[in-house]
């Protein structure tokens, strides 16, 4: 199965996982802070690749773990791909591969943020 097809077929937010954690105090704020910081770190580290592949993979892992806990399935999948990319590096087509991931990551990040904001807001948490 194509990576993009797998990501596109995953729910933006898994309702079952989300409902398990939605009422944890401060979770929305923590997501906004953590996800935004990790996103910025990935952008900074991207400019330092291939030297910073290990750190890049660790930051992607942190964001994947947090996304998974919230049920943010698509973002978790993209981050898992970034982790694999970092672990398997260095790469011959580094910039081309990163450009594909950049596009997918930004689209999924925005989609996840908007969906989670809507879900938390509808329950009075955001």
Structure report:
The mean pLDDT is 83. This protein is an all-alpha fold and 126 residues long. Helix content is 77%, strand content 0%.
Would you spell out the secondary-structure blueprint of this structure?
Blueprint: H1 3-9, H2 15-21, H3 27-46, H4 53-70, H5 73-88, H6 94-122
Helix pairs in contact: 1-5, 3-4, 4-5, 5-6
- Biggest sheet details: none
Report the order of strands and helices.
Answer: HHHHHH
Number of strands: 0
Determine the strand fraction and express it as a percent band: under 5%
Low-confidence stretches: none
**What is the helix tally?**
6
Helix content: over 70%
The rough form would be described as elongated
Instruction: Write down the overall mean pLDDT.
Output: 83
Distance between the termini: 36 Å
Rg, alpha carbons = 15 Å
Structural category: mainly alpha
Offer a few descriptive terms.
126 residues, mainly alpha, 77% helix, elongated
Short précis:
The protein is mostly helical and 126 residues long. The chain is 77% helix and 0% strand.
């Amino acid at each position: 199965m194509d990576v993009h097809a797998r990501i596109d077929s995953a729910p933006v937010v898994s309702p079952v996982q989300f409902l398990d954690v939605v009422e944890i105090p401060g979770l929305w704020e923590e997501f906004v802070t953590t996800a935004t910081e990790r996103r910025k770190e990935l952008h900074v580290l991207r400019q330092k690749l291939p030297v910073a592949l290990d750190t890049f993979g660790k930051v992607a892992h942190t964001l994947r773990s947090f996304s998974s806990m919230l049920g943010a399935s698509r973002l978790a999948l993209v981050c898992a791909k970034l982790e694999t990319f970092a672990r398997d590096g260095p790469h011959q087509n580094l910039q081309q591969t990163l450009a594909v991931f950049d596009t997918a990551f930004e689209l999924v990040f925005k989609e996840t943020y908007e969906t989670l904001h809507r879900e938390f807001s509808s329950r009075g948490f955001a």
